[in-house]
Amino acid sequence: MSTKPHAPPLSLVQTLADRFAGKLPGNEPCGLGVPVEHYTDQQRFEAERKRLFLRRPLIIGHESQIPAPGDSIVYDWLGLPLITMRDKSGKLGTFMNVCRHRGMRLVQEQGQTCLRSLVCPYHQWTYGLDGSLRNIPRRESFGEIDLSDRGLVALPTEVRNGLIWIKARPGEARPGKARPGEARPGAAEPAGTMGLDQHLAGLDADLDEFALADYHFFRQNVRTVACNWKLIQDAFLDGYHVTRLHKDTVGAFFPDALSTSDRLGDHIRSAVARNEIAEAADCAGSELDLRHHATFAYTVFPNAIIIFHPDYTSVISLFPLSPDQTIFAHSMLVPRPPASAGEQDHFERSFELIDQGVFQAEDIFVSEGAQRGMRSGANRELLFGGLEESAVQFHQTIERELA
Ligand code: FES
Ligand SMILES: [Fe+2]
Q1: Is 86 helix (H, G, I), strand (E, B) or coil?
Q2: 236 and 296 both lie in a single domain
Q3: Which positions ≥6 away from 67 have C-beta within 8 Å?
Q4: pLDDT tens for residues 64-101?
Q5: In CATH, what number is assigned to the domain containing residue 269?
């Protein structure tokens, strides 16, 4: 992975403008086959989960989802019971949602909630919002017991560009608070270290240009979809289908087959030209606009997609449950909290269009359809051409990681 400075995202808009004007050639033809077993095989699924999902920093939300002390997100998306919460000092921490007494689940519901403390329903051991054990009823019955040894098991957690990143390390996590850079007795590395800079490979500079940290959480939909997680990534790495599959929704906003992509470390940034690219041919470079002339989608390796629509942003995280079952968590972020009923209504309708009309009825529809088709034996492999070249890069990165 490289962290050397890279060209700003506007360079991709310039490429699209030059291609539109005929000054640059389009995508090179290619033909890559990805074996069907990569989407259906149980052993392959388990290797991906272990090597890609349990060893990499992953996005689990935007910090504006949980702005106040006690605000929490409860989720089992990684096959682990986890809770990310904001403590009284405003810091975020992620913990196993598991009591240190006899292992009962502490918070039962999943999703966003607000807590004052965590009280185990079994014997009422009580934990603070920072994961520390605060009270053991009838404590004398345990003899000499040190509360500080029995805080909730913490996972590394960091906020960057407003996004909350965690790293799951089952079996390696240790009790107590995990803050970035904090050393812990007996730990081989500082507790909060997740190698985020190396993982991002400069992606944070791009997300800064889109001012992602200034955005506000608006709505979320978490659903389980009946397909392999990589079929969803494939669908978002494909400029080929935009005017075809999306012809009844957003397809009319885009010229056909005009997209470009490049890599930032293991991540892929893709830009699809919008119709406004026709004006860009006459623009000085400084007048090109990241959201007006193109729609950017960042494939954050391995499992997230950040899409910068003209006036809002979608953050999608994928969590595989089995070879053909995936959690699809979509959050919509808006540039400011809606200031009027009209603005609220505008964003509500935008969420409905993108979440249901585009993602569910079109992108997820074809991903689930392709998964069903794999069971038929009609294809031994899926074929990717030059307009799907960024999906080819994504599969090559996975092969490298699993090798
Ligand atoms: S298992 Fe939680 S208090 Fe006993
Ligand atoms: Fe799509």
Answers
A1: strand
A2: yes
A3: 86
A4: 999 999 999 999 999 999 999 999 999 999 999 999 99
A5: 3.90.380.10
Is residue 397 within 8 A of residue 301, CB to CB? The reply is yes
In what side-by-side order are the strands of the sheet with 126-127? Answer: 118-119, 126-127, 133-135
Is residue 269 within 8 Å of 262, Cβ to Cβ? yes
For 338, the domain range is 10-52+215-402
Evaluate whether residue 3 is within a structural domain. Answer: no
Together in a domain, 264 and 314: yes
| Test site for ligand 1: of 100, 102, 136, 139, most ligand atoms within 8 A of the Cβ | 102
CA of 106 to the centre of ligand 1 (A): 8
Q: Is 142 in the pocket of ligand 1 (CB under 6 A)?
A: no
Same structural domain for residues 31 and 84?
no
Looking at the structure, tell me whether residues 174 and 222 fall in a common domain.
no
280 burial via Cβ count (<10 Å: 0-12, 13-18, 19+): buried
Asked if the peptide bond before residue 190 counts as cis, ω within 30 degrees of 0, the response is no
pLDDT band at 40 (very low <50, low <70, confident <90, very high): very high
Are 34 and 66 in a shared domain?
A: no
Range name among 3-12, 167-176, 378-387 with the lowest pLDDT average = 167-176
The neighbourhood of ligand 2, an ion, using CB within 5 A, equals 363
3-state secondary structure 230-262: HHHHHHHCCCCCHHHHCCCCCHHHCCCCCEEEE
pLDDT tens digits along 192-222:
579 999 999 999 999 999 999 999 999 999 9
pLDDT tens digits, residue range 317-327? 999 999 999 99
Report how far ligand 1's centroid is from the alpha carbon of 141 (Å).
14
The 3-state DSSP class for residue 339 equals coil
Going by CA atoms, what residue is nearest to atom 4 of ligand 1? 123
| CA gap 215, 132 in Å, rounded | 31
Centroid of ligand 1 to alpha carbon of 119 (angstroms): 9
Question: Can you name the residues that pair with 296 across neighbouring β-strands?
Answer: 271, 308
On whether both 246 and 381 belong to a single domain, the answer is: yes
